[in-house]
Write a structure and sequence with these properties.
Layout lengths: L3 E6 L3 H15 L3 E6 L2 H14 L2 E7 L8 H11 L4 E6 L4 H10 L4 E4 L4 H14 L2
Parallel strand pairs: 1-2, 1-3, 3-4, 4-5
Helix pairs in contact: 3-4
Length: 132
């Protein structure tokens, strides 16, 4: 059985590096971890995953990014991959955008930056048990 993929999308490399470190420490090789510094790059990664037959299990996305906001991106993810869990992780987001993501992207959870590592890991674990 192919490993599940977690895709992290944020325009700040230090955030992506921190997420990778925390997830790898918690889950080791139980997942495939991918990162993208823009939504365009994220779609390239998603296309590659699809071509490779890998399961996009979870997308963790920032909200404030160039080009498209995170809630819109997650809505687009939901339209194409409704089975994929979605976490919005942002320090700069308005309440309407969070509600939009819950309403139209089936957002699993919104976590505020700076996040609490244990809370993030717990939410990833929960999303794993929901999508088995």
């Amino acid at each position: 059985m192919a490993k599940k993929v977690i895709l992290c999308v944020d325009d700040e490399k230090i955030i992506l590096d921190t997420l990778l470190d925390q997830m790898y420490e918690a889950f080791g090789d139980n997942f495939v971890y991918e990162v993208a510094e823009s939504v365009d790059e994220a779609w390239e990664v998603i296309d590659y995953l699809k071509e490779s037959g890998l399961n996009l299990h979870l997308v963790i996305s920032d909200w404030l990014m160039p080009g498209i906001k995170g809630d819109e991106f997650l809505i687009n993810i939901h339209e194409r991959y409704p089975q994929t869990a979605k976490i919005l992780l942002s320090g700069q987001v308005d309440d309407a955008a969070v509600q939009n993501a819950f309403d139209y992207a089936n957002l699993y959870v919104y976590l505020k930056k700076p996040w609490i590592k244990e809370q993030l890991i717990t939410k990833i674990e929960e999303s794993t048990s929901i999508l088995k």
